[in-house]
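Example with several molecule types.
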Amino acid sequence: MPLRVAVAEDAVLLREGLVELVRRFGHRVIAAVGDAEALVAAVAAERPDLLITDVRMPPGDADDGLRAAVELRLAHPGLPVLVLSQYVERSCATRLLDTGGGAGVGYLLKERIAAVADFRTAVERVAAGGTVVDPEVINQLLRRGPDPLERLSPREQEVLGLMAQGLSNANLAARLFISAAAVNKHIGNIFTKLDLPVDTDGHRRVLAVLALLRA
Amino acid sequence: MRPRTAWQAMALHPLSFLTSAWPWRSLAYLAGGVLVGAVAALVFAAGLVAGVVLLVVLVGVAPLVGVVLSSVTVAAVERRRLRLVDLDALPDPHRAPPAPGLRAWAATRLREQVTWRELLFTLLSVAALWWLDLLVLAFSLGLPVLLFASTDSQTWPWTVFGAIVLLASPYTVTSWAGARAAFARTFLAPRDAELGEALREVRASRARLIDSFDAERVRIERDLHDGVQQHLVSLGVTLGLMRLDAPDDSPLATGLDEAERRLAATHAELRSLVRGLHPPVLTDHGLAAAVEDFAARFPLPVDVDLVLPRRLPRPLETGAYYLISEALTNVARHSGANRAWVHGRCRSDLLVLEIGDDGCGGAEPDEGTGLTGLADRLTALEGRMRISSPVGGPTLVHVEIPCRCA
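Resulting structure tokens for the full complex:
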């Protein structure tokens, strides 16, 4: 089932590239706009399954895109949003993830688009209600070594970091050269050490990523 | 660091302080204060009495004007005396009269705001300061002498007390001298508008220079972001689209994957270059976020505690950011510390920053450890910096920059 995607990006060349890429992933682009106001209008009119937006956009040329994304998520609960940015900033990530419990949110550096396979995974994960956070943010957070995360072993921190990037268990196992059972064990340990409630697996993954961001 | 004021000198090792000239300078300062104060009190009393008595016949205005103008002399003497306990000279805030002669001089002085500040200072000196000088000297030196003189078998505990007071006297005398100097400086220092035209111009041009430097960096950062980086991202999309066309195990796919990895490395390099030029977080999110960001990339753990009521003016924000990042870089480079911390608050009209570490200390501003580089920025912002870095550590950099941020 192809996703109905809205794309907001003010640089024309990049916007066209993104549209083309999303089409090639087998999804439909129902709106491609160049500023935050048009974005809000497009989402209201079309109710897309996923919104991909740049942070810095007209009319303010500040964080208009991000603000529009946050507002849209508040106005349309459950609307998946993937935000692309030229640089990562922790408060941006937190603001975004604070909407709708962090489900269906992605925050990536723009340059990650080039790694198409990973980008496609991210797009589809966010649309399915998952959480994807750029490795750059994760690295910064893990290096600070804040309290609840100190209880995690280095390997578990690594697994949590990759989880935050939106990798599935199978991808995780392949990336770390370990068995699926070992991945499950690490993830189980993470959930226990972060005191996450027993719930559906997907939601606990989101909560684990949020714990990482808020630490 | 060599102390510049009597107060700073008290922070020295007690032995170095006691063998330095500072206690003696402070003593001279206070003794002079008594002398000047007594003379000024006499002149003022005489002038006031004469003025009030003669006011009936109107000539009394002359002695009163004389009283006002004599405070200019008191202030001039005070500025000179201040050099005893504060090595940074106070410039004379008075303007040169437009024409020679007493009339022009008096007319100029009476119209200057600083003259009235000096009058207030002189009144306070006459009313209180010199009495306090006398009191401090009498307590810390006179009292012990009296007690020693009257020593006998009954009063010996008082003699011991006298000895203790005398031993403490270098500190007692210096601390009051320091307080008095700070007080005098507050009244007698030129306000901005009173600084000589030349000095003001130098300061302004230095600020302009740093400002245009910063503006240029911001411009380059924007150019890189809006130009180069956007093109690279578009290039990445093009490569990505080609990769979708390439069969997974073909040499083309391998080549494209390699190209993508190199592109990612270029992006990472570009991002760190841009951050070094002028961090975009600073422009978009302000000082606290930018310092947090810097700290998160820093090799050592840094506790950042910056609470600012709102965004600071741009030159101040930029200056403070470079100051903090430079100070932290010094920590990483020289101190051997395990932790560092940054603390910042707005206190009425001052931005107060402290950067500290748990390292080995011994930072010397003169040895090109990067501390001197901070000084230029500070001067342009009219800030002050103090560094405490005893051998063995820890190092603390304390910065105060005037701003209306509260």
